[in-house]
Amino acid sequence: LCGINKYFCVSLQGGVNDEVTLAAYITIALLEIPLPVTHSVVRNALFCLETAANQKENHVYTKALLAYAFALAGNREKRKALLDSLEKEAVRKDGSVHWQRPGKEPEAELPYYRSRAPSAEVEMTAYVLLAHLTSRPAPAQEELSSASLIAKWISSQQNPNGGFSSTQ
């Protein structure tokens, strides 16, 4: 968009790593304005995201973004398919649920006696939570139960000042 591909602090880069994630970010922003799904820009963006969602090799971060974008767009079928796929990649630990990038190790234990995940893991887990809660009609009890396990993990990632490693 602005032609700058360098980050001054790569730990704040998050999950942006390709055109699909960037397109999903932009589509989410347009839908949160809210622009209607019938708007030509949104309609075209959603078409691109639908094409991308059909690819089998999508990264877990990308799936989380796509699930939230389709939830905002009211596309229940795509939202459910992505959430079902994400469910298979979920990390369940200590009564909570989260997602992490393949091959990424969690950060070392901190002096606060608990580990904190890198910002991308916090972000993608938060997007999955948003996808669960952004549902028309309102989320079912089963989804709310899943959402509470996700929220438990996210809240465990707060630093002593109440903030998070993620810039989002």
Low-confidence stretches: 1-13
Return the domain count.
1
Discrete helix count: 6
**Mean pLDDT across residues:** 85
| Secondary structure category | mainly alpha
CATH class: Mainly Alpha
CATH architecture, by name, is Alpha/alpha barrel
User: What general form does the structure show?
Assistant: globular
What is the straight-line distance between the termini?
19 Å
The biggest beta sheet is recorded as: 2 strands, antiparallel
Under CATH, the topology can be stated as Glycosyltransferase
Strand tally, please? Answer: 2
What percentage of residues falls in helices of 4 or more residues? 40-55%
Encode the helix/strand succession as letters.
HHHHEEHH
Strand content: under 5%
What is the gyration radius calculated from CA atoms? 16 Å
Strand order in the sheet with the most strands? 1-2
Describe the structure.
Residues 9-168 form the Alpha-macroglobulin-like TED domain. This protein is mainly alpha-helical and 168 residues long. It is 51% helix and 4% strand. The protein contains six helices and two strands; from the N terminus they run H-H-H-H-E-E-H-H. It has helices at residues 19-32, 40-53, 60-73, 76-88, 119-133, 141-156, and strands at residues 91-93, 96-98. The protein has a two-stranded antiparallel sheet with strand order 1-2. Mean pLDDT is 85; it is low at 1-13.
